[in-house]
Amino acid sequence: MLLVVPVGLILAYSLFRRGTYGGVVYELNLDNFERLFDPIYLDVVWFSVRVAVEATAVSLLIGYPAAWFIATRPRKWRTVLLVVVVLPFWTSLLIRTYAWMVLLNDQGLVNEALTGIGIVDEPVKLLYNEFSIVLGLVYGYLPLMILPLYAAIERLSPELREAATDLGASGWRAFLTVTLPLTRTGVVAGCLFVFVPSLGNFIVPDLLGGGRQSMVGNLIQVQFLKARDWPFGATLALAVIALMTIVLVVQARTMARDRREGVADA
Amino acid sequence: MRSRRSWPVGLVFGATVVFLYLPIAVLVVLSFNASGLPTSWGGFTTGWYEQLAHNDALLDSALNTLIVAVWATIISVVLGTLLAFGLERAVRSSGLDAVAYVPMVVPDIVLAIALLSFYNLVFTQWLGVGLGLWSVILGHAVFGIAFVAAIVRTRLRHFDDSTVEASLDLGANELQTFRHVTLPAIAPGVVAGALVAFTLSLDEFVIAFFTAGTTVTFPIQVYSMVRFGITPEINAAATVVVGVSLVLMLVALRLRGSEDPA
């Protein structure tokens, strides 16, 4: 009730149009959906998808080895290491994002270090670009990648991988043909956990993008709190929900196929 | 076989931990830096914390956040525990499971504007009371319920139903059985869920930002300070917030047992 009605309202609002002084004029039309395909807004949606994909890919590349390391430690250490990795996730994203503003600005520690050891002569622009947004998202959601990966890798029996190596497969081949497919459930879940909150994120692009690089989350905020155009803001939110649904359906299909092939719980 | 090749993954893991903790550590160190500059150390001071203690706007917002967190936690615990029982005992349906967990996975901004639209209709247009603390409380309860339900459910799954039957057979009524048998068994889960809901509410920004109307909570106040620029005072405020969250989460993890640190 607290949940279904509000989401239904978004759908309803998206069909109406904005009144002259804000507010909602209850007049059915599809103008908002047409506006969504205006290149200005389409660019923002596309940029959001690209950034979310980049953040997910980077998280996977860092998260897989990290999860592998935790899963192959002695049992008593695993829980401790997992808590160490997950703990920062439970603190305020706002403050963790602010920390990167402190680190990355022109007079920040990273730039001081880079100029100090002579890698660059002048401070590098690290803040308010795509790089800082992706970095902030990876920082924010990396623990959500590591958790499901850990669960998948931990279930895997080490003998299986060794059998592949013993039978003549090289380390990389053993990984690509045996380990990776067997942990696919974890990979898909982890990617989903990072992609979804990244796509609709508001704080990270707002603080680390400096308003220059805006994502769909910022656009929704502007429509709702500044332009007072709720119907169009609602349409944008629907676009986010639609993109999420596509990703979720792909995930469900992968899982179903895995189950048919009997590898999901190997 | 495996230990021979484990140093590269060990390296990545070590780098990951540094990556996760270094930014927070820098904030903590800077909050004690007398120079107030991010790059030069001017000696140890607690001056920024004293300044914090005299920032009335910040203190007022902190009080609002406490009120919100306490009420949102109470609602989340009661309804979340009931939901856990319902999903675990009464109806078993994967569809309902999915709906119950939606608030945990949907991007917060989508939830925020959905709630804003809803509250605007109910509180502003129908009841004419406007938005304020209670709308934030309800908003936080929406995701708090989901987290409490998820945590209590894992506890319920390990709970042996035959103890309830034994209690009823021995003449206790249902209320007594709940009070003396079921509740003690699930209590660690309920308390852990309460701590998680409380911590999340303390730190939550996006939903509060959208549904608070003109009311200011602590994260909203911090956000407007951050928008204005980097100051040592924010570092001190951030240190307090991170410290409180970490302590609460560690206690919650302890209570939940070690098997599932998510």
Summary tags:
heterodimer; A: 266 residues; 2 strands; B: 262 residues; mainly alpha; 11 helices; disordered C terminus
Would you kindly provide a written description of the structure presented here, covering whatever features stand out?
The complex is a heterodimer of chains A (about 270) and B (about 260). By secondary structure, chain A is an all-alpha fold. Chain A has helices at about 5-15, 30-35, 40-70, 75-85, 95-105, 110-115, 130-155, 160-165, 170-180, 185-200, 205-210, 215-225, 230-260, and strands at about 15-20, 25. Chain A contains 13 helices and 2 strands; from the N terminus they run αββαααααααααααα. In chain A, β1 and β2 form a beta hairpin. The two termini of chain A are about 40 Å apart. Chain B has helices at about 5-30, 45-55, 55-90, 95-105, 110-125, 135-155, 160-170, 175-205, 205-210, 220-230, 230-255. In chain B, about 75% of the residues lie in helices and about 0% in strands. The model of chain B is unreliable at about 260 (pLDDT under 50). In chain B, α1 (about 5-30) packs across α11 (about 230-255) and α3 (about 55-90) packs across α8 (about 175-205). Chains A and B meet through α1, α3, α4, α5 and α7 of A and α1, α4, α5, α6 and α8 of B.
Oligomer, anyone?
heterodimer
Instruction: Estimate what percentage of residues of chain A fall within beta strands.
Output: under 5%
Shape summary of chain A: globular
Round the Cα radius of gyration of chain B to an integer and report it: 22 Å
Q: Which stretches of chain B of 5+ consecutive residues score pLDDT under 50?
A: 258-262
| Average pLDDT over all residues of chain B | 85
Task: Quickly describe the structure.
The complex is a heterodimer of chains A (266) and B (262). With 266 residues, chain A is an all-alpha fold.
